[in-house]
Design a protein that fits this description.
Length: 503
């Protein structure tokens, strides 16, 4: 069932979609939605939005103190002023272009701040709770968005800054009261654990580029939508419908089984379909844009969910500040979205060689997507390296324990998961069975096995490139899940599982 967190985030997503998704405003008069107005707004909004992510990453690293607080007013005030600027543009049309730029910049900064606050909240919760709230919000956001059309347009535009924004700002303030600030992700000072943060950037930048490729594609589609506001309104509707489908698909699948997803592998599978869709663009014309955008945004929405889940997982497992991780990841993704939008505008107005606008857009899109694909896979360094490292998997693990049995072989244990963990000896096999039975994450299973082998906290922290506080937090969670209190109880529990199950 939805709660304050999921409904608040859903309302934020719905309201944000009325302006941020492409500079097309379904609740503002079409008379002011000229090409120059929408282009100016979205350039200002998107660039400030992406830069704010990178700025948050640097800010958390060098000034970790303020990051311990939910500074909602720092995001809410510019967001409110941005919407006031958009409303003012309707009545002061002589200054509409300047107000569009100011409104775009303010909304971009404010929305980035709210996204950071929500990500911080979801990451601070237990994985099952945070992931559930995030996915439920993704399901309810489109429903709220479509419900906004039931309100008279002239009223809706005033309700957003005066009613809706205060509501989702209040919801995050209320929800944040239960946040445990004693977790390693908040306690650990970034500059005191530099190696942990650097290693995280090395491990996750490829995933960011893969998701950024979908963002780039959506930026291109948005550039076409902005040029034609009538088409843009249809794209907005299909985008939100795609979000609903993506959210329902995630929720339904997660309820049935554990999910282990590899972003890089998924991108390699989908890449040929994406570039093939762009190749069809000049042949099928503008009637093809809306369904193409709907399918593309379905993939993009799934990717955004995975981005937030993966960043939260990295923060929990490695003791990294969630704003740092999400700011780095999101900065890459949304900067590539901006690059796609700018490229689409440039290619659409390019008339040399007698190319039609859609032909130019398709040509440049396929070329730049191929470059992003190459860079995202590691570039020349990765292509020539003998060690083909891959991004870590994303885990969505149900809260209920699996009905495994001890001292008896079980076919279901071996069937779960996408890849078998490394089996070294009897203890490794037994730890795999414990992980399956109690639904431990990969990192929890690593820590559990090292504890079972007698490794100290300091040694485990060194081996996993995390802080000692992070190891202690994992140990507490492991002991709670296994319902034990001492190392000897862990050893006895591990020994109670029959390793022949995996043979």
């Amino acid at each position: 069932m939805p709660n304050t967190r999921s409904l608040g985030y859903a309302l934020f997503l719905a309201v944000n979609a009325t302006a941020v998704w492409g500079g097309v405003f379904p609740f503002l008069p079409m008379s002011i939605q000229t090409s120059s107005f929408t282009v100016a707004f979205f350039l200002a909004q998107s660039l400030v939005f992406a830069v704010s992510y990178f700025a948050s990453t640097l800010g958390v690293y060098f000034f970790p103190g303020p990051a311990r607080k939910f500074l909602v007013w720092a995001a809410g005030l510019p967001y409110l002023l941005g919407w006031c600027a958009l409303i003012a543009a309707v009545y002061v049309q002589d200054a509409a272009l300047k107000l569009a730029i100011a409104g775009g910049a303010l909304i971009g900064f404010g929305s980035a701040g709210f996204y950071m606050a929500w990500q911080r909240l979801f990451a601070s919760q237990k994985p099952a709770v945070g992931n559930r709230d995030l996915i439920l919000a993704t399901v309810f956001a489109p429903l709220i968005y479509f419900a906004l059309y039931l309100i008279p347009v002239a009223v809706t535009v005033f309700l957003i800054p005066t009613v809706f924004m205060p509501l989702f700002a209040l919801s995050i303030l209320v929800a944040s009261r239960t946040t445990d600030l004693d977790q390693p992700m908040f306690e650990n000072l970034p500059r005191e654990h530099k190696n942990t943060y650097v290693q995280a950037l090395k491990d996750y930048w490829r995933s960011a580029f893969c998701i950024g490729a979908f963002a780039f594609s959506c930026g291109v589609v948005r550039s076409i939508a902005v040029e034609t506001p009538e088409v843009g309104a249809e794209v907005n509707m299909l985008s939100m419908a795609s979000m609903l489908v993506a959210g329902v698909a995630f929720a339904a699948t997660w309820q049935k089984k554990s999910l282990q997803l590899n972003v890089s592998s998924a991108f390699r599978v989908l890449f040929p379909f994406v570039i093939s869709a762009f190749v069809l663009l000049p042949f099928l014309g503008k009637d093809y844009i809306a369904p193409f955008a709907g399918a593309l945004y379905a993939l993009y929405d799934c990717a955004i969910i995975l981005m937030m889940v993966q960043c939260a997982q990295a923060s929990r497992e490695r003791g990294i500040n969630p704003v740092f991780m999400y700011g780095f990841f999101g900065g890459i993704v949304y900067m590539l979205h901006d690059a796609g939008y700018i490229m689409g505008l440039f290619a659409g107005n390019l008339t040399m060689f007698g190319l039609q606008p859609l032909t130019s857009i398709a040509l440049f899109s396929v070329y730049l997507l191929a470059l992003v694909y190459f860079v995202g896979q590691g570039g020349f360094k990765q292509a020539l390296s003998p060690n083909r490292a891959r991004a870590e998997r994303i885990e969505l693990i149900p809260t209920a324990a699996a009905p495994a049995k001890r001292k008896r072989p079980s076919a279901s244990v071996q069937a779960e998961g996408q890849r078998k963990p490394a089996v070294v000896d009897r203890i490794s096999k037994q730890c795999i069975l414990v992980k399956k039975h109690y639904k431990l994450s990969e990192r929890e299973a690593e820590v559990m096995e090292l504890i079972a082998r007698g490794a100290t906290v300091a040694r485990i922290a060194e081996m996993l490139t995390v802080s000692e506080n992070t190891v202690r937090t994992h140990s507490k969670r492991i002991y709670a899940k296994l319902d034990i209190h001492r190392k000897q109880e862990l050893a006895d529990l591990v020994d109670s599982f029959d390793p022949r199950t995996l043979e």
